[in-house]
Design goal:
alpha/beta; globular; 8 strands; four-stranded mixed beta sheet; 115 residues
Length: 115
């Protein structure tokens, strides 16, 4: 699968991210070295959100409740300013489909594709 196929397949309407529930809405700001991971399934993003809450509460006991982070559609959140790239989708093709490489876009490229 090339980038053109991924562009067609993956949009803010069908990609899930781990997002922080902030006062202004959800913010996709959980990243590894500035890379925002996306997921094909809500369950995968939600599982990662729950692990993040558990890890954060290990450092700051009781500061994070079950609603502080969640698996959210990319269209329903803002992208945090700590993000540099978007990796599509992080757990793609683990469910028996043909294996394809990850596709990565800079935030600028992503914003041009989906203004």
């Amino acid at each position: 699968m090339d980038n053109t196929s991924n562009r067609t397949k993956y949009t803010p309407d069908n990609l899930w991210v781990v997002a922080e529930n902030q006062m202004v809405g959800y913010c996709a700001c959980d990243a590894s070295n500035g890379a925002l991971f996306t997921y094909e399934r809500k369950e995968d993003a939600q599982e990662r959100a729950e692990k993040l809450i558990e890890r954060l509460n290990g450092h700051f006991p009781g500061d994070y409740d079950q609603d502080s982070w969640a698996g959210v559609l990319l269209r329903d959140c803002i992208i945090g300013d700590n993000q540099k790239t978007i990796i599509m989708p992080f757990l793609a093709n683990q469910y028996g489909e043909e294996k394809t490489p990850y596709t990565t876009y800079t935030i600028e490229e992503w914003n041009k594709m989906f203004p």
